[in-house]
Amino acid sequence: MRTDNAAPASGLLPPAERRRATPATRIALTAAQQALIHAGLDPIQVPAVFASSSGNPDIIHDICAMLASGDYQISPTKFHNSVHNAASGYYSIAVGSHRAVTSLCALDGTATAALLEAAVQAIEADTPVLMVSYDLPYPFPLSEARPTVDAWALALVVAPATFERAITQLRLSDEGARDAVDTVLANPLLESIREGNPTARMLTLFAALAQSGASEVVLRQGNGRALRVSTVAC
Amino acid sequence: MHNGGCVKAASVAISAFTATTAVGRGHRALLDALKTRRSGLKRYKARSDFELDSAGPALDTWIGEVEGLQSITLPEQWARYDCRNNRLAWLGLQQDEFLTTARAAVERYGPARVAVIIGTSTSGIEQAERAYRERDAEGHLPQSFSYATTLNNFSAPALVAHAVGATGPTFAISTACSSSAKVFAAAARLMRAGWIDAAVVGGVDSLCMTTLCGFSALELLSRDPCRPYDAARSGISIGEGAGFALMEMRADAPVYLLGAGESSDAHHMSTPHPQGLGARLAMRGALSAAGLAPESIDYVNLHGTATRSNDSAEGRAVFDVLGSAASSSTKGWFGHLLGAAGIVESIVALLALENGFLPGTLNTTDVDPDCPNTVLLDNATCDISVALSNSFGFGGSNCSVVFGREPSAQSSLS
């Protein structure tokens, strides 16, 4: 899901939590809910892997700006929203899940790291795993140090091969070159978005899923190595 | 109700480890401080060593500061990683010959077969705090500010991966105070999936205004050195630290990862579930992963932050799941290390296993009667076989990790 302005309010959050939640949390939960519904899963049964390069960029900016101005009275809500796992925390509260949730970061390879972690969890625990990646732009002046295009959240449910509602089979391998080149999108506008937002880097995989044929996508990991993902329709 | 997500960790050996905190550099300094009951906590002063160029807030609290970070210089090729957090990571890597040992493992297995997974909560945010103070008249950050190699959570794992030469999966786990406990679970999964042969895991978090002022706002900072599980406890002392461990599949190591359990409270963003529901699920998940009965646990390194809510919830959960197992919180020595708490306290558990030494709970005199678990106040000497370490964080993120001197009875490399 892509949004240029305010992130949509997630239906997963009760009204009080929706007010406290940041735009990053809201967009992440909105994507999470769509994927869970699509997969027909009860969220309380599903471990979740959340991932973001920027986390809650507006909160990090607010806190740094306050501290620089000599105002040390950070509100408790602002502080708990500053943690990288704010979205996954709100998520587990919203759906009432006691299953494991984690929160990962690998700069431009963040979504790729989450895909690998979700796949390994799904195979080991023999269960569907929710993967959610989300990245919003930083406000000025951090926006100059880390330009980020638009606000994006993507969610997938990764499950063992036996999962009956599977739409595509994924095969992951890391046999690629050390300085991998990402698969690109043919549309120049979409490609500029893919390059400009860490979460949107996974759009090539989503394009392959949408085409539902056999294809192969190269996703760069944080350290520049290739994760090769081949897709075969189920 | 199901147990916490469990991670079977048979025969995952811990072949090297190191920790650097306010009590000193390396695990020998840590063990020595534990044995002699020498705390590294000191009273916080605005304009402290880590905040030389700013007045800072007038906080009445104690901190666990790692001395000498001002004079740590990163190697020239990684100079853009320079920030307090990465200086601490670099200093930590040098101790106990950890860097040499890790590089040898990378040589042995090949760079792509070694993962680097590092827990951190605030990464190099202290560098961003400085950059904001140095904005120009138009509000731009100084040119010298390097986002990717300081503020982003990936900066420490990237630096560690460069330093050891590993090119396997490299990422940060940032789940607040459970971050660097979860690294053991994530690395063990990748090992058992056959994706990697070894992993350098760790955690690093450093003092910054964000966490000091944030915990102050939550009224969770103690005015005295923290007193975990004391009836009169009044909050946390924030510390900083770096810890690392090398994980390999082998059967001739002194200590092993036996299992890990991960769970969520699903209760509140910054307050634990009052009955420690998530904590119970994490401990049961770790026991289940290790294939161990609760009576097998000889020692528990508690999360034991010294807040009213954590210790009472955790204490009940530990008693209900593990009965009268000996337990202690070592935060009175080095403070609450946040994203580095999991790894450093796991290392305390590993030291307990290797040395037959159980640390007590520093600064605590009267155990809260609301906490029914067996809290060791004094140090003890006792040969033990299995130890568990608890780490719980904001967002209700919980992780328990079990270590032992023998590979799991469920041992299987498949």
Summarize the structure.
By secondary structure, chain A is α/β, with parallel strands linked by helices. Chain A contains 9 helices and 8 strands. Chain B has 414 residues and is of the alpha/beta class.
Can you walk through the features of this model?
The complex is a heterodimer of chains A (234) and B (414). Chain A is built from nine helices and eight strands. By secondary structure, chain A is an alpha/beta fold. In chain A, the strands form two sheets. A five-stranded mixed β-sheet of chain A has the order 1-5-4-2-3, sandwiched between helices. In chain A, strands 6-8-7 form a three-stranded antiparallel β-sheet, with helices on one face. Chain A is globular. The model of chain A has no long low-confidence stretch (mean pLDDT 93). With 414 residues, chain B is of the alpha/beta class. Chain B has a single domain, classed as 3-Layer(aba) Sandwich (Peroxisomal Thiolase, Chain A, domain 1). Chain B contains eleven helices and 17 strands. In chain B, strands 1, 2, 5, 6, 7, 9, 10, 11, 12, 14, 16 and 17 form a twelve-stranded mixed β-sheet that branches. In chain B, helix 2 runs parallel beside helix 5, helix 6 crosses helix 11 and helix 8 packs parallel to helix 9. In chain B, 68% of the residues are buried. At the A-B interface, helix 3, helix 4, helix 5, strand 3 and helix 6 of A face strand 1, helix 4, helix 5, strand 6 and helix 6 of B. Strand 3 of chain A pairs antiparallel with strand 6 of chain B.
